[in-house]
Write a structure and sequence with these properties.
Length: 124
């Protein structure tokens, strides 16, 4: 009985695997005020999920309900950036990353997304 249970647990862990998606914020916590009020936000996404379809990754920066599309950083396959406007009246913003992507399932393509935790950018 114990061997059967152990075999089932091992089989389940092998089937589900240890799929992780890691979002690393590369944006500094503080930036000097910009004369044009535009600020660069950048992140790196690492995934152990082999089914993710690389050309389908569509990240955005979320500030409240506003979405700012991100673009890939040149010569990098897992880094993305966006330039976001911040009004001169604000000295701090809270943002997070939302990453939508497609993956290859059993005979079909599926869609999924993941969100990062909240980050704060302080302008001085």
């Amino acid at each position: 009985m114990t061997k059967t249970l152990l075999a089932l647990v091992l089989l389940a862990s092998m089937l589900t695997g240890c799929v992780t998606h890691t979002v690393t914020n590369l944006t500094t916590k503080e930036q000097p005020r910009s004369p044009n009020h535009m600020y660069r936000i950048e992140y790196q996404w690492d995934s152990t999920d082999q089914t993710v379809r690389p050309g389908t990754i569509k990240p955005v920066v979320m500030i409240g309900v506003e979405e700012y599309p991100m673009k890939p950083v040149m010569k990098m396959n897992n880094r993305f950036e966006a330039w976001i406007p911040v009004p001169p009246t604000k000295s701090e913003i809270t943002y997070n990353f939302k990453i939508a992507y497609e993956y290859t399932g059993f005979g079909k393509v599926g869609k999924a997304s993941t969100n990062s935790k909240d980050y704060t950018l302080t302008l001085r």
